[in-house]
Design a protein that fits this description.
Largest sheet: 4 strands, antiparallel
Low-confidence stretches: none
Radius of gyration: 32 Å
Number of helices: 9
Helix content: over 70%
Mean pLDDT: 77
Number of domains: 2
Number of strands: 4
Oligomer: single chain
Structural class: alpha+beta
């Protein structure tokens, strides 16, 4: 176990020496990795904030329940008592046929109702659900339609479906971009490691002559690639947070113009740590494949 720690400590020192020998090139590589991490991370953060705006400011989805014409006002209010205990319903409001007629007249349709011998409108209910998602609205509407007192149920789910479809499209695009840039990140690391191996070709040949194994030679480069990936991930998230700070004032002004308040939020610690780990792993994979291929080529020199 002690020798294992000694070998890995030696590899870390070798990786640190590589940073010291090529500081400028390493810095540029870390910046490129940072930009590669910042693009999908920034888009994910903006998408998350847009989703939060949609959740906070989207219009309330109501379910309009029209009762049968044979149901009088007392029966309608009793029906409210039956459904009020449903845990998916936030509130229920009874709209009498008289109130409905007044609303039609207030909307400028008094000419249509003036010649009617009696009020043809049924009593209705305005149901506000706890969860405004389209699937919940449809399930709740189907459940309410099964009652004997109900004639028809109207759902306002079109806007919710459009919003959900747009958000899903955004998530898919961010996922595709993350895959492409993840491959680019691994390629960047692989190219950097390949150049490092060629620069240290003579040292590698001497190490082999005195009995060093490929695993021993490979380990410092793997550490070097992983550390580059983690540092690049940190730089990427620093760019994301800086960008949020730059546009925060503008976002607040836009929200104020619409009579609302909104503050951008950065990623949670879990997302931050996951992105750092993923950046380090992708860089390690790029280094692993680059070292394996390049060392086989070095053997022929």
């Amino acid at each position: 176990m002690k020798s294992w720690f000694v070998h890995h400590l030696h590899s870390l020192r070798q990786a640190a020496r590589q940073f010291q020998e090529t500081p400028l090139a390493t810095l540029f590589t870390i910046l490129v990795i940072g930009v590669t991490v910042a693009l999908p991370s920034g888009l994910y953060t903006l998408l998350d904030n847009l989703d939060r705006i949609g959740q906070d400011h989207k219009p309330q989805a109501d379910i309009v329940v029209f009762l049968k014409t044979s149901v009088d006002e007392t029966q309608g209010k009793n029906f409210i008592g039956q459904i009020r205990h449903n845990n998916r319903i936030a509130s229920v409001r009874f709209v009498s046929k008289k109130e409905g007629l007044h609303k039609l007249e207030a909307a400028g349709l008094s000419d249509l109702t003036a010649g009617l011998p009696e009020n043809p409108l049924p009593h209705s209910l305005i149901v506000k659900p706890n969860d405004p998602s389209p699937s919940t609205l449809e399930d709740l509407g189907a459940e309410l339609a099964k009652h004997a007192e109900v004639e028809r149920v109207l759902l306002d789910t079109d806007w919710a479906k459009r919003l959900e479809a747009l958000m899903q499209l955004g998530r898919d695009l961010v996922f595709m971009l993350a895959i492409l840039l993840g491959l680019a990140l691994a390629a960047i690391t692989a190219n950097t490691i390949r150049l490092q191996i060629y620069a240290q070709k003579n040292e590698i040949e001497v190490a082999r002559l005195i009995g060093a194994t490929d695993r021993f030679i490979r380990r410092p480069f793997l550490y070097f690639g992983s550390i580059q990936g983690v540092l690049g991930g940190i730089v990427g998230w620093a760019l994301v947070l800086s960008g949020l700070q730059l546009i925060e004032h503008s976002v607040a002004n836009v929200a104020a113009a619409y009579g609302a308040t909104f503050a951008l939020t950065g990623p949670g610690m879990g997302v931050f740590l996951f992105s750092l780990a993923l950046s380090g792993i992708l860089s390690w994979l790029g280094a692993f494949f680059a070292v394996g291929q390049t060392l086989r080529q070095v053997e022929t020199f």
